[in-house]
Amino acid sequence: MKTKALVLDIDGTLTNSLKEITQATKEALLGILEKGHKIVLASGRPAFGMGRYVRELELEKYGGYVLSHNGARVFDCRSGEVIFEKAVPPEVLPGIYEFAMKNGCGLATHSDDTVISAFEPDRYVSWEAKINGMPIYRAEDFVEYVDFPVYKCFMTAEEQRSAVLEKQLQDLFGGMVSVYRSEPYFIEIVPRHVDKGDSLRRLMETVGIEHGNVVSCGDGFNDISMIRYAGVGVAMGNAVEVLKREADYIAESNDADGLVQVIRNFF
Question: Pseudo-torsion of CA 189, 192, 197, 200, nearest 10°?
């Protein structure tokens, strides 16, 4: 039997609308782990915010992998070994801060276990903290405070403005970082040439799984690259339309145990 990798975005894919793994989905996932296949959790979340699901799926026991911060940091759950990491160049932070202040955007990053907000947290920054189970620290001088490796910054803005701001950020800082939306209101800023697809490719080459044996499942804009990389790219029924157009297969929604359907068809 060839070892396959099932790559899962978390929010809107692995979890339902309550941010929980349903019992049916959990049983199906544990079933493929027991057969020797691998699960990779690939999310814009920081590693701390993914820990609950790593534990729930027993990935330390079975040897799964985590791509956190949209692939900027990749590690082995069993050994704790960091397979790949790349930080945002610190010299870009002042310009990003000025842009956010000028345009009235939210701006935040993560330390190991805290959301660091540049301004009074808006509802999107607060939501990010809540789903990751992390407190928020409001840094009076964001640029000065952030003196640690930053794997991802994120800006927040209403959906009507975010696409325009995304393009402006790409024009201003595209030579230094990658900029894309994960949700209509989240603009992710990660190291240049880092995305889920490229980091997944690095991981699969390291562990010796051919891309034809990779099944990637997602629902958001930042899942496009890993859908393109995989042998089978799956869009959940609740996915954004652009992802559905890229997918090889469209599953039921995250609230209808779509991953169970994927496992039955491809594992």
Answer: -100
CB 47 within 8 A of CB 66: yes
Q: Compute the radius of gyration of the chain from its Cα atoms.
A: 18
Q: What letter would DSSP give residue 220?
A: S
Comparing CA positions, the residue from 171, 170, 119 lying closest to residue 141 is: 119
Element holding 25 (H helix, E strand): helix 23-34
Q: Give the C-alpha separation, 94 to 76, whole Å.
A: 33
Contact indicator for 3, 63 with CB cutoff of 8 Å: no
Task: Return the percent helix, strand and coil in the chain, to nearest 5.
Answer: 45, 20, 35
pLDDT average, residue stretch 168-180: 93
| CA gap 105, 188 in Å, rounded | 13
H helices of 113-255, where? 123-132, 142-145, 159-173, 196-207, 224-229, 241-246
Q: Which of 53, 162, 149, 66 is nearest to 110 (CA)?
A: 149
Identify the pLDDT of residue 237: 98
Question: pTM for the complete prediction?
Answer: 0.89
Sign of CA dihedral 233, 264, 60, 38: negative
Count the Cβ atoms, other than its own, within 10 Å of residue 31: 13
For residue 212, what pLDDT is reported?
Answer: 96
